[in-house]
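HOLO CASE FILE
Compound: SLL
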Amino acid sequence: MAPPTGKRVKGVQIFRPFVYGTTARPFDEKTNPKPAGVPDDHTHSWTVFIKGIDNVDITYWLRRVQFKLHESIPNHVRMVEGIKGQPFQIHETGWGEFEITMKLYYVPESSEKPQTLYHHLRLHPFGRTEEEKEAMRLNGGEVISWVYEEQIFNEPYEPFYDILISGALPPSAPTLKDGGGGGGGSGAATPTSANTPGASSNKGGNKKGHERSHSRASVSTNKDGKNNEPKEEPFVMQRSEGGVLERSAIIPLVNRPGHPFSRETEQLEIQKLKEAMVKVDEMRKHMLEEMEKKQKRLEALRAENAKAA
Ligand code: SLL
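Model generated. Tokens follow.
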């Protein structure tokens, strides 16, 4: 951790979405043949990763990741340095599931302490129903356990703020200093449980759990701390990455195979919640009616009783 430089940008919270998790595949002569030298008792090949959504670069804020694997694995503590635009990842083979510890080291300009994430390596799908198990399978037999997460940088130091803002934009975009607003706009990200059978173990103090839904402060805040109102200008697509580069501070617009986290899934989740609310309201009304009926019936019976007495 480098000593802080500059002042903190007050009242600003910047969030960067990312995905972490494991993808495993059973060895199979046709679909996943066992490479030479892999021990007989190994049943799966697997990958543990941390990456940007839709593989958007995150190395401008995340410098390196230390993966701590099971002690039975040779050289089980491994440091992975960030390579621009590529996931932080480790490929391995093995026979058993275990908890992986990932320690995130941020770029020195951030002056942020490293933070730790925990993730259970899944080799076998699990769930109460076949459907739930099937939801963990992708691409004909891969077992996925992925978690959507957001890294929150609270009142970042000025130099880091500049890095965060310019790093989120594609090289083709005008920079904020040029007056372009590529990184602005407000993002309300409600992550989804779709394809995330593994629960998030969100132990870092600076991160937001994906179970929380919230509107978020706009990141288009001036250095003087004044908050620009989020502008609802339609943004112009300059390139064809499905909107993710231009909007890399938030989540992509639509789902694509292998990338389940998007505004589209978010909207589906919101829709489901709305429908559930309507249903709950109907149930509430129905119960009230039933109660009133019973109340009347009770009164009638009481009156009858009184007469008979
Ligand atoms: C289990 N508690 O019993 C777990 C331990 C260990 C997995 C799982 C070894 C790989 C290698 C491997 O897969 N260990 O030998 O390189 O299920």
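CASE NOTES: The first strand starts at residue 13 and ends at 26. Residues 175-232, 234-248 have pLDDT under 50 and may be disordered.
CLOSED: yes
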